[in-house]
Amino acid sequence: MKKFLIVLAAAVVLFSGCAKKEEAAKAASGKLVIWSFTDELKTMVDKYYVPSHPGVTVEYSLTPTDQFPNKLDPVLASGQGAPDVFALEAAFVRKYVESGLLLDLTDIANEVKGKCLAYPMEVGTFNGKVYGLSWQACPGAMFYRRSLAKKYLGTDDPAAVQKYVANLDKFVETAGVLKDKSKGKCVIVSSTGDMNNVFLGARKNPWVVGGKLNIDPAMLSYMDMSKLLKEKGYEGRAGQWSEGWFAGMKGSLKDEKGNDVEVFSYLLPTWGLHYVLKTNAPDTSGDWAMVPGPAPYRWGGTWVGAYKGTKNVAAAKDFIKYVTSDDGFLEAWAKDTGDVVSNVNVMNKIKDSYSEPFLGGQNHYAAFVEMAKSVDGKLTQGTDQAVEGLFGEAVTAYMMGEKSRDQAIEDFKSQVSAQLGL
Amino acid sequence: MSQKKIGNETRVNRWGYFFVLPFVIVYFLFNLYPTLYTLMLAFTNSKGFSGLSGNYVFVGMKNFSKLVQDQYFWGALSNTFVMWGWNFAPQLGIALLLSIWLSDIRLKLKGQGFFRAVIYMPNLLTAASVALLYRSLFGYPIGPVNQFLQSLDIYDIVERDGKAIREAFNFFRDVSMSRGIVAFIQWWMWYGHTVIMLMAGITSISSSLYESAVVDGANSRQTTWYITLPMLRPMMLYILVTNMIGGMQMLEIPFLLTDMRGAPDFKIRTTNVYIYNMAFQGVNDYAYAAAISIGVFIVTIILALSIFFFLQDRSELKKRV
């Protein structure tokens, strides 16, 4: 008996670390479990949703973005402990939209279609049904330094500068002008990676067509553009998100010989202004301005979806509809955070009342509203992140002169076939 | 009388089982079951979202036939070997030198304990921080190593727009340099461990052997070559096998040093990085990743057995015969 108890004690010690059993049943309607990777959604819940919907209790959980899919995948696949509503980042939103594990939101989507921007809904649509909606639009723009524009192009007025970069050919021409006039000091972008999203947005077809890999001509142009920028020295040789990339924003980028490198522009989306430029280059405030740049594109964004097997379908749908399309909420949210929202009514209502000191007083909101209209959301797919990671290697190999363009593309196709089966 | 004796013996034996039980349970749960599960997965088509929740069918040897024909699997194996080989040979050589010097009674080096601690310290660092450290060290175009080379006026010559330009070295776009850096990091992190193991081996050599050699007039080179090295052979064999097994499973450094895919040109993609890319990135092809890990397992076993077969000390066996 004694020995049995000892063994039992040992086993209990072992198993005490394991997870508790699931709660028998969730509370009746009025409780929502919401998961996200930032506290953006939490602010929406605490400040706006719960005060206006007193019958609903929300349980919120935050997991950092890079661990978020790892946490979400097993619970969605098994159904045990799955949240009711969750946020989905642009990098992996399609994986979940295409998974068949999300709640069908087509009825809400049809209700709000008229007042919502097209592209976020397109991203959340799969096989004709809508699984994810977004409260924001993230069109991409080109932010340039006013002082450099005045010095080398003679003007810093956005309308005039846009003429210099109206399309990709003009963009390259202007890069040459900047380099010549500055005697090699000024580069048009700090990294060839800045051009990636622009060309992705210029595609006519997605990466996978009919189950097979499809390399859109725009991506071949991206390879050529990267090589051209590198060969002619029109770029600052930094990698995106590296120290050099941030240094260029502050104006402190140097090359290996210690000479200053002036970076003319950065291609960033809506959140780039607040989360990247303002936070990293506060001292340059007022010296920036924004233009649409050589082509419309989008970058990032957060969608909201619900789990297919949620026990609280009504509350989940109501929450998503509120957060992604409610006029009153989105107007308050836009005024609070400066976020570009996807509700056309709100956009048109507030767009004329902005003046951004960081951009020298420019009304960036109105500019973004215009850009958001020409973004295509139908090109995004679940395998994009993996394919683009492999394509990045091909572009770098060609750009650095390690492989010929055909060789790089052949190797890329071979890798995609081996790793992704396309 | 004899019954009582048997009774005592049985009870003592049962206690042994109870003490071993926790280890056995943990081993079964966290070691044996996952290994068998992986083996089972390799025979299925488990993929994607619900691939690990039972949404698969058995497809026989399909993954294995794909594995044998997969040029990237063999490429990853060759990458692993090249980087391990460049790490191991200097590691054993330098560790031998250091361990012999540090345990030489005649040399009486001061601060032996201090040296041992300092040599071992790189092993205590997490691989992730080391990878980031070296990534910054070899940064392009500005980084400490590049700055040092430039102070000696050493530049890389690249061709841009038809002209030859002097530029900083782009270390992580050069295959040999990237592999060399990975091998160097592995060496730097593990040579301390090898020194400690070898020193343990040396202290176990009976000092009477050295004394009789000195009496016979042997100098230090002769004692090292004829006494220390042969007596260290079992220890070196152990180090070779464990180092090889660890080397075959190299993951953190090649994964985190460049772009998590084995850049440049996938040439530092080891087998474990390949497994990670397959299973936890892309389309989550768990079945094929499981097949790759079984493939690595088989290669490791064959190598370990060959090492034992060829390098075993036959003199012991011959004595018994």
Keywords, please?
heterodimer; A: 422 residues; alpha/beta; D-Maltodextrin-Binding Protein, domain 2; 2 domains; 4-stranded mixed beta sheet; 19 helices; 12 strands; 12% strand; B: 321 residues; mainly alpha; MetI-like fold; two-stranded antiparallel ribbon; 13 helices; 2 strands; 3% strand; flat
Describe the structure.
The complex is a heterodimer of chains A (422) and B (321). Chain A is of the alpha/beta class. Chain A folds into 2 domains: 27-137 and 300-359, Periplasmic binding protein-like II (D-Maltodextrin-Binding Protein, domain 2), CATH 3.40.190; 140-296 and 379-420, Periplasmic binding protein-like II (D-Maltodextrin-Binding Protein, domain 2). Chain A contains 19 helices and 12 strands. Chain A has a 4-stranded mixed beta sheet with strand order 2-1-3-12. A 4-stranded mixed beta sheet of chain A has the order 7-10-6-11. The longest helix of chain A is centred in the middle third of the chain and has 16 residues, at 217-232. In chain B, α4 (112-120) packs antiparallel against α7 (175-203) and α11 (271-280) runs antiparallel to α12 (286-311). Chain B has 2 domains: 1-33; 42-320, MetI-like (MetI-like fold, Orthogonal Bundle), CATH 1.10.3720. The radius of gyration of chain B is 26 Å and the shape is flat. Chain B has helices at residues 2-41, 62-69, 71-102, 112-120, 127-137, 144-151, 175-203, 207-215, 220-248, 252-257, 271-280, 286-311, 314-320, and strands at residues 156-160, 163-167. Chain B has 321 residues and is mainly α. The interface between A and B is large, with 43 and 40 residues.
